[in-house]
Amino acid sequence: MGATVAAYMNKNNTIWTGTKAVVDTMAQLNGALGNVSQTAQDQETPIVGEEDKKALARHDLEDEIMRIAGALGSLAAKTNDALLAGQTELTLAQLDKTDSDTLEETGNRISGLATTNLAALADYNILQADLTAFGQMISNFHDAKTGPRTAVAKRASKTKALPGGVKSVKSILRNQLDKEMLLFKKNQPDFYAGYLSARVIVDRGSRKGAAPTPPATKTATKSTA
Which domain holds residue 36? Predict the structure, then answer.
């Protein structure tokens, strides 16, 4: 979209570099084309990687929840703490079936219980450093669980922005460069004709009209009686 014109103009830059208006317009056109290209690239970027990050973060969090909950459950049994036992009775199958928000809430709950019983958990080799790492794991999962939705939202915004970028390129061509190229129509007819050919390629199929072309010669037709 417009790259054909830009390539043609850049190939013949020795002809127009002495005309400041054209130089400025070409800088504007190249910038607009760069924005369109980057937006299109961003829009096409796959989001599979975000799902992979979420799955990996979930796997790590589930394992750590089970490790710390297991230690708490053992502690509950040794101290005859029925409430703690009930709060930490978990299975990996249960965690696998929970939604992302519930899993995060479970992680925070187990982290709170572990903090309360931190001194006793030293016998299980669970120290403050472990709880700090556990908290970071929960935070990582929180970020990862929204990653796919965020990526989709970003892609949607790029999709919405793309037509505006294309419109900007067309506006520069039609409202500026097409008019400025008329300066070369007499002195550089071959260059001007090449430009028109490049513009026809860009505007092919446009509903608003094609590139500027020389007016067609009408052929009179004789009516028959």
Answer: 3-46+162-203
